[in-house]
């Protein structure tokens, strides 16, 4: 699935996926959410982001994990 808001470039944050036009990684956004930060709190700290950017980071991570291999039960 395409993610136009997410970019990967080896010259930006060592190729980690970032929100397009920023140096804010998908990982950082997910860690903020996991720490309990609300969307509003994240947007206050990073006013150049949008709620759509945060949802895009979550969707990117979900799609990435959907591609992971599955371990068979023994």
Description:
The protein is mainly α. It is 43% helix and 5% strand. It has helices spanning 26-34, 39-45, 51-66, and strands at 6-7, 18-19. A two-stranded antiparallel sheet has the order 1-2. Helix 1 (26-34) packs across helix 3.
Give a quick rundown of the structure.
By secondary structure, the chain is mainly alpha-helical. The chain has three helices and two strands; from the N terminus they run E-E-H-H-H.
Low-confidence stretches: none
Average pLDDT reading:
94
Q: How large, in whole angstroms, is the Cα Rg?
A: 14 Å
Helix count, DSSP H or I runs of 4 or more residues: 3
State the major sheet: 2 strands, antiparallel
Order of strands across the main sheet: 1-2
Gross morphology is globular
Q: State the helical fraction.
A: 40-55%
Q: Approximately what portion of the residues adopt beta-strand conformation?
A: 5-15%
Termini gap: 32 Å
The count of β-strands is 2
Helix and strand content put the structural class at mainly alpha
Order of helices and strands: EEHHH
